[in-house]
Design goal:
heterodimer, A: mainly beta, three-stranded antiparallel beta sheet, 2 helices, 12 strands, 14% helix, elongated, B: mainly beta, six-stranded antiparallel beta sheet, 13% helix
Chain lengths: 210, 157
C-alpha cells in the first residue's frame, strides 16, 4: 500500500509533454538572448611615435640641395677655341641625404659645336689650365682617376652615358669630379664660329636599389 | 615495400591543384619582392659656353723683295695657326698648272722658285691659315709673279 501511495505523487507531478517542450524552447531562446546582453568595455589609444621618411639628396658644385636642380659650372668655358685646345674644371659632388647613395652620370650637349667636342671625367683629381687664347694653345688637364667611359666622350642632343660604373657616397661623404672638355684636333672645319653647352646629369639611387 | 616507395593514395586532383596554387602564390610573392621603390635624386651640372674660333686668313698677301729675295709675303696671323697653305696657279691660254704648298707655323713667306715654277709665266698666289683640320678662307689678293729661267730670277709684276 505504501508503495502504491509513494508512486501516486510522482505520477501526479509529471508535467505534460507539451510543457516540457515549451521549457526546452524557452531555454534555447534564453541562450540566444544571452548574446545581446550589454558588456562592459573600454578603449585606450597608444600614441604612435613620429615616423619620418629618409631623404636621398645628391649635391653638386655647391648646389643641387633638395630634389633635382641645375647648377652652372662657369669654369668649364672656352671662347674662340681652336682644334686641340681644351679646358678643365672641377666641382664637388656630395651626399646631403640620410641614406647612402650611388650615382652615375649621363650627358647631353646642345649647339652646332657639340660633334667636335670631347669630354672626360676624372674622380678625385684637380684641374690645371695652361696656354693662352692669343697663342691658340690652351690646354686643360685633370689628375685623378678616369671614370668616364672613355677619355673622349662625345655628347649630343640624345642622352649619352658618361660615367657608367656607379660611384658610392656614404651619408655626408663627397668627392671631386674633374671634367675636361676638348675641341677635337680633327674637328671639321665647318665648325668654325659655332658654340655648344654641355650638361652632366648626376643620377643618384639609394644604396641597394636595382 | 617501404613508405618512401609507396605511391600516396591520397594525392587527389584537388590536392594537386592546391600544390599548384601554392607554387603560383610563391612565385608571385617572389616577383613582388623586386618591386619595392627606392629613393632617387638627380641634379644637372651645366658647362659654360664653349665657342669655336674662326681661323683668320692673312690680312694681306703681296709679292715683294726683301734682302735680295723675291717672295710672296703675308703678315703673321694671331692666334698663331699651326701652319699656312699657299695655293699657286697659272693659266696661259690652253695651258695651266696649279699646286699647293703647306708651310709650318711661323713661316710668313714663300719663294715660288723653290716650288718648282718653270719658264716665264704669271702666277697667282693665295694664302690660307691652317689649324689642325681647319682651313681659313683664302686671301685672294694674289700677286702676279713672273719667273725668268734665263736669268734664274723672279720678279713681281
Amino acid at each position: 500500500m505504501s508503495k502504491h501511495r509513494a508512486e501516486a505523487p510522482a505520477r501526479g507531478s509529471r508535467l505534460p509533454r507539451a510543457a516540457l517542450w515549451s521549457l526546452a524552447g524557452l531555454a534555447v531562446v534564453g541562450l540566444g538572448i544571452q548574446g545581446t546582453l550589454a558588456a562592459w568595455n573600454d578603449t585606450a589609444t597608444v600614441p604612435s611615435t613620429t615616423v619620418q621618411s629618409g631623404t636621398l639628396d645628391i649635391t653638386g658644385n655647391g648646389g643641387l640641395v633638395g630634389a633635382g636642380g641645375t647648377t652652372s659650372l662657369a669654369a668649364l668655358s672656352l671662347a674662340q677655341a681652336y682644334p686641340g685646345e681644351s679646358v678643365a674644371a672641377t666641382f664637388p659632388v656630395g651626399n646631403a641625404g640620410s641614406a647612402g647613395l650611388t650615382y652615375t652620370v649621363t650627358g647631353t650637349a646642345a649647339g652646332a659645336l657639340a660633334p667636335g667636342m670631347r669630354y672626360a671625367v676624372y674622380a678625385g683629381g684637380s684641374a690645371t689650365n695652361t696656354g693662352s687664347a692669343a697663342g691658340g694653345d690652351r690646354t686643360g688637364t685633370c689628375t685623378g682617376t678616369l671614370v668616364s667611359t672613355s677619355a673622349a666622350v662625345t655628347l649630343g642632343t640624345g642622352t649619352t652615358t658618361v660615367v657608367s660604373s656607379a660611384r658610392t657616397l656614404a651619408v655626408g661623404a663627397g668627392e671631386t669630379l674633374c671634367v675636361r672638355a676638348a675641341l677635337d684636333a680633327a674637328a671639321d672645319s665647318n665648325l668654325q664660329g659655332t658654340s655648344t653647352t654641355a650638361s652632366l646629369v648626376l643620377a643618384a639611387k639609394q644604396v641597394g636599389a636595382a | 615495400m617501404s613508405a618512401r616507395h609507396r605511391r600516396p593514395a591520397h594525392r587527389t586532383p584537388l590536392r594537386r591543384l592546391a600544390v599548384v596554387v601554392a607554387a603560383v602564390v610563391l612565385a608571385v610573392t617572389a616577383g613582388v619582392g623586386t618591386a619595392y621603390a627606392f629613393f632617387t635624386d638627380s641634379g644637372t651640372v651645366t658647362s659654360g659656353t664653349i665657342s669655336a674660333g674662326t681661323l683668320a686668313a692673312p690680312s694681306s698677301v703681296a709679292c715683294s723683295t726683301s734682302g735680295g729675295v723675291t717672295a710672296v709675303r703675308w703678315p703673321a696671323v694671331s692666334p698663331t695657326p699651326t701652319g699656312y697653305r699657299v695655293e699657286w696657279s697659272y693659266t696661259n691660254g690652253l695651258y695651266g698648272d696649279s699646286g699647293t704648298v703647306d708651310l709650318p707655323a711661323g713661316t710668313t713667306q714663300w719663294q715660288p722658285a723653290s716650288g718648282g715654277l718653270l719658264f716665264t709665266r704669271t702666277y697667282t698666289v693665295a694664302v690660307r691659315t691652317l689649324d689642325g683640320s681647319w682651313t681659313s678662307a683664302a686671301r685672294t689678293a694674289s700677286p702676279t709673279i713672273r719667273f725668268a729661267p734665263t736669268t734664274g730670277t723672279m720678279t713681281c709684276v
